[in-house]
Amino acid sequence: MDFFRSQDIARRNTTRLVVLFLLSLISLIAITNLLILFVLGTFAETINAPLFQRVDWRLFAYVSVAILAVVGFGSLFKIVSLAGGGAKVAEMMQGRLILPGSEELHEQRILNVVEEMAIAAGTPVPPVYVLEEQGINAFAAGYSPADAVIGITRGAINTLSRDELQGVIAHEFSHILHGDMRLNIRLIGILHGIMVLGIMGYYLVRTTGHSRRSKDSSNIAVVGIGLMIIGYAGTFFGNLIKAAVSRQREFLADASAVQYTRNPDGIANALKRIGSSSAGSLLQNPATSEISHALFGEGVPRSFNALFATHPPLEQRIRRIQPNWDGSFEVSHTKAASEASTSGTAKTARRAPLTALTALALTDSLIAEAGRPQEANLAQAREILASIPDDLIKAAHNPFSARALVYCLLLDSDSDTRGKQLALLEERADPAVYDTLQQLLAEHSAIDETLRLSLANLCLPVLRQLSASQYESFRSNLDALMQADGRISLWEWVLQRVIVQPLDSVFMPEHRLRPQAHHALRHLASSCAVLLAFVVRAGRQQGQSAEQTYAQAMASLGLADEAMPAAERLSIDAINQALNALRGLKPLQKPAFLKACALAIAADGVAQTQELEVFRAIAASLDCPLPPIPLSDSPSS
After folding, report:
1. Burial zone of 449 (CB within 10 Å; 0-12 exposed, 13-18 middle, 19+ buried)
2. Residue 153 and residue 130: Cα distance in Å, rounded?
3. Which terminus of the chain is more exposed, N or C, with fewer CB under 10 A?
4. Largest CA distance in the chain
5. Residue 585, SS3?
6. Three-state DSSP class for residue 175
């Protein structure tokens, strides 16, 4: 399915979720009021009166408001408790963070698979948490790719081959890319609010059980039992909602995993291993039921699978991937053979970066692959990782050296500016980090610009483990480095959007980008003008003026009347504000804007690495991650 259409469906699923929630809430209000009226004997006293007159409407209003308050508070409390993003969900499931450089072979292997997939998809590399469970399962959680995490069970990383793990991780990346994660967290919060009524009923029954018997305590006990029953009704509605929202998304994620890897056997064999395992995909953690809809496989047993199952049956999932499947859960190939084909890629000579050729064809191909990494992108991700020197890979995986590496990526090529930046770091940075920076500079005075973005992304998981004070100091140093020469370069802006913003969303919740109402392009014309003027001025214009290029790009959006903003209006703050506003574009209108950006870049027939980095940073900020820049002179990878 087209990525942008899939995002639109995810948006409509959110509306569908709200409608289902409201319907379930109305049902709970009606049932609770009937219970209260029955306990108070209202029906018995007015048995001969018309139905409308039997109801005490003032009491009905009080009870309804109370239910709305309880459910609303319960939902809000749960959503706030998960405000830290995917890491909070992983901790709720008692996941343990796998640190890069782990000496445990299986743990390092899953980290490698996740890094490859993230680079191929053009997303930040998510941290990986292992759940000490024997069932074969996994999940992706977070509000956006910036704060996403991957959780995977011990049973999965110890049992599955590398190809099978890649299929599972590709499935989870589909949820990251298609906007399913935010929906899943909202679902957790909403369902918790619905089930709070049952929890209240349980405590009412416990309280009255220890109190003296009286008519009032008996009535309270009846109300408590009734609320418990209503709580079960809430669970019933909740499971229906989860099933309604989840099942088709699982089919889409399976299909996307096949599309990403071009290896249907990988995910199909992972599903078969679940079918042949005694532990299956079931998890023992009590919190499993809350996130069951976000798991790779069914996490809790269901007695009425067809009605309440959050996942389609294994047989249906496998047969959609392998139509000629014989029904056996036996996996034909050996684990060792799969490992041998992909375990470790030799360092290869890097090809010359693409700087010219069909610039428009290149940008168009990148847009076509938005949110849909292909096997070629995975192969390119492996090539990128193979092209990065081992000591830089190691540096990206350590909290001290990762900070030093990001500092290194920001050092200016001008010797005077670089000297000023180094003096700032010597004064302000952690001494151990500064010493590491000096070691990196001794061996790598300059880092290939085509590797910079991937290297910075590799640093993200360990940088997310900094303490709040360490991050505050690190971020302050980044700002000082960027402003050392009195201006912000294009690369510095890219790093700010791709690295600083995701970290801000983790350490500074007030900076987290909130979901916005969806608007048409015409409603965001001024923001489009600022961004396109920035893209035009960022590149080199040959054969025509910047004004002509801007006019062509705006005309492609039907916004030809919007004048080109003056250069002095294009401050970093103005650019960031415009980009944040454009996050509210309707999903199906985002590719039109990206194509306008592509027109601006391609106007001179040249696609410089710097221009493409800006292009990818804009796309990532619009939740449309693009694959890496091709390494050859072909317009498409």
Report:
1. middle
2. 5
3. N
4. 94
5. strand
6. helix
Cβ atoms 122, 616 nearer than 8 A: yes
Picking from 259, 290, 78, 247, the residue whose alpha carbon sits closest to that of residue 177 is 259
The token pair at 183 is 């929906």
10 Å CB burial of residue 303 (0-12, 13-18, 19+) is exposed
**Cα distances (Å, whole numbers) of residue 104 to 99, 110, 154, 340:** 10, 10, 12, 18
Closest Cα to residue 162, out of 4, 323, 418, 337?
337
Report the chain's C-alpha Rg in angstroms. 27
User: Which residue in 365, 389, 385, 425 sits closest to 602, CA to CA?
Assistant: 365
Torsions phi, psi of 256, nearest 5? Answer: -65, -40
How many beta carbons lie within 10 A of that of residue 540, not counting itself? 11
Q: Which residues have CB under 8 Å from 17's CB, separation 6+?
A: 183, 186, 187, 190, 241, 245
Decide: helix, strand or coil at residue 214. coil
Q: Which residue in 171, 193, 169 sits closest to 82, CA to CA?
A: 193
Residue 484 makes CB contacts below 8 A (sequence gap 6+) with 412, 417, 420, 421, 424
| Residue-wise pLDDT tens digits, 164-186 | 999 999 999 988 887 778 777 77
pTM above 0.85, yes or no: no
Domain coordinates in residue numbering, the chain: 8-327, 359-370+514-621, 375-508
Whole-angstrom distance, CA of residue 493 vs CA of residue 474: 17
Measuring CA to CA, which residue among 147, 165, 148 is closest to residue 156?
Answer: 165
Identify the bridge partners of residue 131 per DSSP, sorted by sequence position.
153
Q: Which of 133, 172, 369, 562 is an active site residue? A: 172
- 8 A C-beta contact, residue 79 and residue 186: yes
The number of angstroms, rounded, from the C-alpha of 25 to the middle of its chain's C-alpha atoms is 29
Catalytic-residue membership of 562: no
The residues of the chain scoring below 70 in pLDDT are 1-18, 37, 39-56, 197-224, 226-227, 230-235, 237-238, 244-245, 302-308, 332-363, 371, 509-518, 539-543, 607, 630-637
What are the C-alpha distances in Å from 253 to residues 5, 162, 256, 317, 502? 14, 19, 5, 10, 24
Give the separation between CA 74 and CA 69, rounded to whole angstroms: 8
The answer to whether the Cα torsion of 349, 354, 358, 362 is positive or negative is positive
- Which residue has tokens 């009491």? 59
